[in-house]
Design goal:
This protein has 637 residues and is α/β, with parallel strands linked by helices. 30% of the residues lie in helices and 22% in strands. Strands 12-11-8-6-7-14-15-23 form an eight-stranded mixed β-sheet, sandwiched between helices. Strands 5-4-17-16-18-19-20 form a seven-stranded mixed β-sheet, sandwiched between helices. It binds 5'-O-[(S)-ethoxy(hydroxy)phosphoryl]adenosine (WTA). The site of 5'-O-[(S)-ethoxy(hydroxy)phosphoryl]adenosine has 24 residues, from helix 11, strand 24 and strand 25.
């Protein structure tokens, strides 16, 4: 153990890494290196950019701050992440190594070596070109969890186009908004997806969304379930048919990109209005995700690494698809939902495929906890070496269960705090860092995070404050697609004079400098780790003919972290009823998606508002929790 941690104050409830874990860590002297890199981030990132990324042409400037807050990294460098994720491995010892293992909910299995994956990506890249996709175009991808989703992503980036993946759990309006905002002329989807033994009609949802987004000219449909769907002649094409054409050859040049060219857009929920498309670029993103995966999940040649997120969220982009492939790792993807058909499904997969690293969300851990330990005890989990958590604070009880029953007190848990906006891990341990259940421990090497008061002073130990990042980092989103003002306003206006990035989270830092993230300070709700904006749910509700006004809040829930409560004022003459509440939930499912369905809908005659007309969600939340209502002096008179 490093001297840097000898001063740790409370010895109880700290999990020190075992000598075996330290001995085999990729970066055993991490704590010393981290201290240097936090003080002076640029040499650290420069060294990683040279070590982990191949550049077609080297960069001349590590960081350009002249256009702050629109920072530029590795300026002048020419690269493409697909070169680093695939092309180079085909020429090295990874050529026949397994890149991807995929298991379907029905037990189907597909295994791709690096060479096989490279060929599939090239073939689909040629298909995209033949459909008229060019460098700089946007491609919306709305698919189930099959290998074709990463293949579509990689093929898009290979030819210099920009993907916008929309999570398959979103519905018509959410998809339509994202297609329209990204101005995608092409959408890639599947006929359907398997979920708990049933099929989800992705193509029907796509059709409805495309009807609402006339910009779309072509739709490529991967046949997964074989269910009946409508194909529109001239607009819709089967993936399998296109891949059988001579144009789908396995030879395709990778487009040479500038480090700051756009790579992908990923929409995320914000405080107000429509979802914002965070833009990530070609150079810095690669450096950040490859570094963090190597250091934190300690990836080794023989690992079988399973990030159980969906590729449609940032966790999947960075840590299922791109970073593992960059490092030449074997990434595992499972199509189905946790706990189906039986509660030991995941443990069975870990045993069968010798998974050595499992990275998931607290909500999944809590649901497994509920099933009880006898389901985990049925399986040999001795292949596991490291565990991870992401998406929301993990409650210490779930942490301990995960550590004991899944990790058998042998596997350290990497609790990684980060965001769609940050591209990669920001506050996280590595295997050599002593752990405290519920804390993401320390800012990663090269990351300057702090907890501050409203006036910018650092908060005292254990004082709750604003979680900020004080120095740019390579994986940072560069802007909001098509709306730079929104980017500046949302993230950089709170601490404008200091030039700090505000995360939207509140946190505290304890006497040992360990960070404890408390939760969102804005109107973002985390349901089962999924990020939703109150505005999306409210606008879906008011789009229903019976609803005049609506307010949505997040209320703590033991299993899901939070659930949504919605309050609706009905149009005059309409009576609230159980049936109407049910219809409104169904309506939210149709418009936004199943993850946004409110747990409770209450009909109210009025909503608490400030004098300027802003709904006071804080007050609704206090009421829902039976807490004192607090200061209401700004309430509407
Ligand atoms: C929350 C997911 C506590 C946080 C990668 C953040 C967490 C938001 C953690 C981003 C964690 C994520 N501990 N809270 N380990 N990880 N969060 O954009 O509120 O879907 O701001 O990115 O999730 O959610 P997003």
């Amino acid at each position: 153990m490093s001297d840097a941690m000898d001063a740790i104050s409370t010895k109880s409830d700290i999990y020190y890494p075992s000598p075996e874990v330290v001995a085999q860590a990729n970066v055993p002297d991490y704590l010393t290196l981290r201290a240097e890199a936090v003080a002076d981030p640029l040499p650290f990132w420069d060294a990683r950019a040279k070590e982990l990324v191949d550049w077609y042409e080297p960069y001349h400037t590590i960081l350009d701050t002249s256009t702050a807050p629109f920072f530029k990294w590795f300026v002048g460098g020419k690269t493409n992440i697909v070169h680093n994720a695939l092309d180079r491995h085909v020429k090295n010892a990874h050529k026949n190594k397994i890149a991807l293992i995929w298991v379907g909910e029905d037990g189907d299995e597909r295994v791709y070596s690096y060479f096989e994956l490279w060929k599939e990506v090239n073939r689909f890249a040629n298909v995209l070109k033949s459909m008229g996709v060019k460098k700089g175009d946007t491609v919306t991808i709305y698919m189930g969890r099959t290998p074709e989703l990463p293949i579509a992503m990689l093929a898009t980036v290979k030819i210099g186009a920009i993907h916008s993946v929309v999570y398959g759990g979103f519905s018509e309006q959410a998809l339509a908004d994202r297609i329209t905002d990204a101005k995608s002329k092409i959408v890639i989807t599947s006929d359907g997806a398997w979920l708990r033994g049933k099929t989800v009609n992705l193509k029907d949802i796509t059709d409805e969304a495309v009807n609402r987004s006339p910009i779309v000219q072509k739709v490529i449909v991967y046949k997964r379930t074989g269910q009946a769907i409508n194909m529109h002649a001239g607009r819709d094409f089967w993936w399998q048919d296109l891949m059988a054409l001579p144009i789908a050859s396995a030879a395709c040049e990778t487009e040479v990109m500038d480090a700051e060219d756009p790579m992908f857009i990923l929409y995320t929920s914000g405080t107000t209005g429509k979802p914002k498309g965070l833009l990530h670029t070609c150079g810095g993103y690669q450096v950040h995700i490859a570094t963090t995966l190597k250091y934190v999940f300690d990836i080794k040649e023989e690992d079988r690494y399973w990030c159980a997120a969906d590729p449609g969220w940032i966790t999947g982009h960075s840590y299922i698809v791109y970073a593992p492939l960059m490092l030449g790792a074997t990434s595992f993807i499972y199509e189905g939902a946790p706990g189906y058909p039986l509660p030991d499904r995941w443990w069975q997969l870990i045993e069968k495929y010798s998974i050595s690293i499992l990275y998931t969300a607290p909500t999944a851990i809590r649901s497994y906890m509920r099933y009880g330990d006898d389901w985990t005890e049925r399986h040999d989990l001795s292949s596991l070496r490291l565990l991870g958590s992401v998406g929301e604070p993990i409650n210490p009880e779930a942490w301990r269960w995960y550590h004991k029953y899944i990790g058998h007190e042998r596997c350290p848990i990497m609790d990684t705090w980060w965001q769609t906006e940050t591209g990669g891990f920001m506050i996280t341990p590595t295997p050599v860092v002593p752990l405290k259940p519920g804390s993401g421990t320390l800012p990663f090497a090269g990351i300057q995070a702090d907890v501050v008061r409203e006036n910018g002073e650092s908060a005292d130990p254990n004082e709750e404050g604003y979680l900020v990042v004080k120095h740019p980092w390579p994986g940072m989103a560069r802007t909001v697609w098509g709306d730079p003002d929104r980017y500046r306003f949302t993230y950089w206006s709170e601490f404008l004079s200091h030039g700090w990035y505000f995360t939207g989270d509140s946190a505290r830092r304890d006497q040992d400098g360990y960070f404890w993230v408390i939760g969102r300070m804005d109107d973002v709700i985390k349901v089962s780790g999924y990020r939703l904006g109150t505005a999306e749910i409210e606008s879906a509700l008011v789009a229903h003919p019976t609803v005049a006004e609506a307010a949505a809040i997040g209320v703590p829930d033991e299993l899901k972290g939070n659930v949504i409560y919605a309050y609706c004022i009905l149009n005059s003459g309409i009576e609230g009823s159980d049936q109407l509440a049910h219809d409104l939930k169904e309506h939210v499912r149709q418009e936004v998606g199943p993850i946004a369905i409110p747990a409770k809908i209450e009909f109210v005659p009025s909503l608490p508002k400030t004098r300027s007309g802003k709904i006071m969600r804080r007050l609704l939340k206090a009421q829902a929790l039976g807490q004192p209502i607090g200061d209401t002096s700004t309430l509407e008179g």
